Amino acid sequence: MKKILILLVALSACCIQVSAKHRFMCYRDTSRCGVPFAKDPVVVDYKGRYLMYYSLPPYKDKGGGWNIGIAESRDLIQWNKIGEITPETSYEAKGLCAPGALVRNDTLHLFYQIYGNGRKDAICHAYTTDGLHFTRNATNPIFRPQGEGWTCGRAIDAEVYEYKGHYFLYFATRDEKFEIQQLGVAAAPLTTDFSRSAWTQMSDSAILSPRLPWEGKCIEGATVIRKGSRLYMFYAGAYNNAPQQIGVAESTDGISWKRLYTTPFLRNGKAGYWNESESGHPCIFRDRHGRTYLFFQGNNTHGKTWMLSKVRVRWKKGKPVPVL
Questions:
Q1: Which residues have a Cβ under 8 Å from the Cβ of 203 and sit 6 or more positions away?
Q2: Is 18 helix (H, G, I), strand (E, B) or coil?
Q3: Listing from the earlier edge strand, what are the strands of the sheet with 307-316?
Q4: Which regions in the chain score pLDDT beneath 50?
Q5: What's the CA gap between 111 and 44, in Å, rounded?
Q6: How many domains are there within the chain?
Q7: Which pLDDT belongs to residue 61?
Q8: DSSP string covering 184-212
Q9: Alpha carbons 306 and 175: distance in angstroms, whole number
Q10: CA distance 31 to 56
């Protein structure tokens, strides 16, 4: 325990120093465990401020399930926690986390997973007009995948993106043996209220499965952005701390995807770096000035702590250039 505390003190000093000198984002939430622990970031520009939603672990002293934290920022570097989303319904009783978000008109829509139910984890939807207080969709959970072999019926890590007249819902699922994590996709019309009946599964097989050595047995955490006529998906490869690293694929229809690179787009850090154990679960985000950033989670304690940061993504000939 003493070694962990010493490491955290040193890491805290490092984050403060680097943040001030190089404008490095290092977001830490110690409210649940007494140590930095924040995962699965998603960022939106909503009503004049940037909001970040992220996963919070159970309390160290009183247990409970995973919940969702809310932080705000004016510059995408300094973040202040402003709230939490905690269970309100019976289906959320064991926990909720891993949010995805989009803004439509004046409403912010959140797509999150219920967690702690094994194969019955599923995608839910809620909405807000202030960024803090959410109304649940009456048909929750709104989506679980169907099929044989490639899915056990579980859906997590939702990402919803508008493209070519539809909202595409990207999700991660496990195979029937509960060993391989891979991605699937569903779609709804633009007029949707995101209820359960609106979604049509677009493929009866995985749209992206782990096959490269660094991806191990897992692809999850899809996040999508459009550049020109194409979609670019950033995804997490390998299970947490394996290490998990970030890859990228492209698509012209939102359903079929092709990897851009055989090596990670964003690697885990070198020995001694804050993200030595992993750089994972990405969120690709374009700010109001047109700059693109990749938010992600990382740690150097093999999962005893977790922090959130970001890197600038550069584009060359319309394609994202790997972060070296």
A1: 184, 185, 255
A2: helix
A3: 278-286, 292-299, 307-316, 319-321
A4: 1-22
A5: 13
A6: 1
A7: 86
A8: EEEEEETT----GGG-EE--SS-SB---S
A9: 27
A10: 9
